[in-house]
Amino acid sequence: MKIIRISYPTNSSTDYPATSLAIGYFDGVHRGHQVVIQNAIKQAKTLGILSSVMTFDPHPKSVLGSREHTSFITPLPDKLQIFEKMGVDLVYVVSFNRDFSQVSPIDFVERLLVSLQIKYITVGFDFSFGFRGLGKAHDLKLLAKSRFQVQVITSVNSQVEKISSTNIRNALQMGNIEKANYYLGRRYSIQGLFHSEHNHFFVTPPSIMPALGEYLVEVKIHDQWVYGTLYINHEDKKLPFSLYLIDPPTSLPECLEIQFICLASNDVSQLGENPVVKKSI
Questions:
Q1: 114 to each of 36, 43, 50, 82, how far by Cα in Å?
Q2: Theoretical Cys-Cys bridge with 135: which of 122, 130, 253, 258, CB 3.0 to 4.6 Å?
Q3: Locate the FAD synthetase domain: which residues (predicted)?
């Protein structure tokens, strides 16, 4: 998979390949996002062109001053790995800054999308673009002017609500790992540095950490997965995360990937006293 970082306006002298494109921030790359991206891949195969994804870095809301978007379900490196596993050929990472936030919906199409030689675009039903998100999915169809096709994917829902990044974020913050994992279509995972002497785990990317509690997890160590327990205590400002493993190998990498299985306990007073995993490192 090729990654191209671009800024607005694009370089007019660059020869971009024809692609079928999925557009979105795609935080979490959840089940709804996957349908959008899979459709872009499907159309690329039909047309005999490359499949591509356009995402933005950093998050538009963080640039515009929202304090709610300083941590993410999938930081950019994780998101790119998921795109690659899905079979995406090319990813455009668009630099989002205040100047770009002022671009009109018309210029977003004429000076960005058209210059990239896009032949087919897939977006979600709630897609918006341009200054203050004034451009909507139906506007994209009108602005295409037969230069590219546009397909809008309808909402993907659970039995009770829309599957969305917001609802996954809320589930994680409530410790509802099973719900978050179902909406994601995979286990929620984080990466971080591990200091085995005191079992301390330090989250490195700006990942969302679940609610306070004791979690059953699986940890990737070299090429194997090992069960363990991760204790999260946001009230401990110095060392909020502690990790314990079952039968850990003799050597451990400094950086670990942790996948969440379920919440074992959210009783603050009992954290660490009766761990699911009794053998520490």
A1: 20, 18, 16, 26
A2: 130
A3: 18-167
- Whether 102 and 16 have beta carbons less than 8 Å apart is answered as no
Question: Does the pLDDT of residue 277 top 60, yes or no?
Answer: no
- Tokens found for residue 85: 């596993």
Neighbours of 67 (CB within 10 A): 7
Rounded to an integer, what distance in angstroms lies between the CA atom of residue 31 and that of residue 191? 22
- With H, G, I as helix, E, B as strand and everything else as coil, classify residue 155: coil
Strands across the sheet with 118-124, in order? 2-6, 90-95, 50-57, 19-23, 118-124, 149-153
- Residues 62, 170, single domain; the answer is no
Residue 34 placed within a domain:
yes
User: What CA–CA distance (Å, rounded) separates 222 from 197?
Assistant: 19
CA pseudo-torsion sign 39, 45, 47, 50: positive
pLDDT at 221: 87
Residue-number span of the structural domain to which 116 is assigned: 2-153
